[in-house]
């Protein structure tokens, strides 16, 4: 029983070491790339900031569903306004045949 436990512990240790080396290699690679291209990191940070702001604004407006409903209503109101304005312009415009 003790030998089986030791075998399992050795296998787990080997797997852990492989995973640790792989993760260290990946982190080192990402760090070196970030040092070579600082503009990319700045762009990512700015993009995350903009995304966070938009999510905050949508939440503040009452949530995403309400924001979508409000936008649909505004679009419909705008379309109705344009139709009314166009009919008013047509009725007020002088006719060419007169």
Strand content: under 5%
Distance between the termini: 109 Å
Number of discrete helical segments: 3
Element order, helices and strands? Answer: HHH
Q: Helical content, roughly?
A: over 70%
Query: Which residue ranges are poorly predicted, with pLDDT under 50 across at least 5 consecutive positions?
Result: none
Taking all residues together, what is the mean pLDDT? 84
Shape: elongated
In brief, what are we looking at here?
By secondary structure, the chain is mainly alpha-helical.
Please, could you describe this protein's structure?
The protein is mostly helical and 98 residues long. It has a domain at 1-36. It is built from 3 helices and no strands. The longest helix has 35 residues, at 2-36. The radius of gyration is 32 Å and the shape is elongated.
Quickly list its features.
single chain, 98 residues, mainly alpha, elongated
Topology:
Blueprint: H1 2-36, H2 38-60, H3 64-92
